Amino acid sequence: MTLSSPHADSSGTADRRPTMDVLFWDPVHAWRRLLAEFVGTLLLTFVAAGGDTIEAATHQPLGHAAKVVAPALMVMALIYAIGGLSGAHLNPAVTVAFALRGDFPPRRVAPYIAAQIAGAIVAALLLLAIFGNVGHLGATLPHLGSGTALITEIVLTAALLLIILGTAAAGPRLVGHNSALAVGGTIAVLGLIGSPVSGASMNPARSLGPALAGGNMGSYWIYVVGPLCGALIALAVALALYGRPAGHEEAAAAALREPMRGVE
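Request: output the structure for the sequence above.
Response:
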């Protein structure tokens, strides 16, 4: 998959831009990958947290279904837009799962998570600046007690991560129709059943931004422990089903051996 066709343009000049494989694996392009994760998580959090915030600010009910399907559609679009570049992780639990599976470089985990958290915080601050501190800024909160919310987040995240690990055909990346439709659809379904219980976060970064900006950190631990435990369960099941993929070193070497069609 390339950024554009490698064929010559109308002037006869070959396309000089690098392939998506090179953009993902070459260390030179690290800033592009981190920017993609930052912007992607910002957009996801703005949409996911924006439903409750806008509903409270405008006093216009958006509806439960709309508020959970909107972020699912956003994730679907982001997989198409940035999946080849950064992998469209958008979630620390996803990044950790790929790293533990062995096909995502461990040295990238901290920068990815930092970019995701930064994007979520900026999204929450934008909501705060635009609408004020209303609707808990869309924070994910337990509605039936902490224990029930924790178990719900574990189960929901395990289901989501199993789909992600099973459809990530391009190594530690969500790319193309299969990933976009499967992951987006799963988020929508899990949101519909889990949102009334725990908020159906499944994402520590998405929960941190609104919780931090709105001062609702009391139950945030649920949205760290739950998704990480769920990710570990999904990883164990995925390894049992599919085995361990080729390591990231081999994938990077293969990608960078290909003739580059680009310059910086």
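Residues 1-14, 259-264 have pLDDT under 50 and may be disordered.
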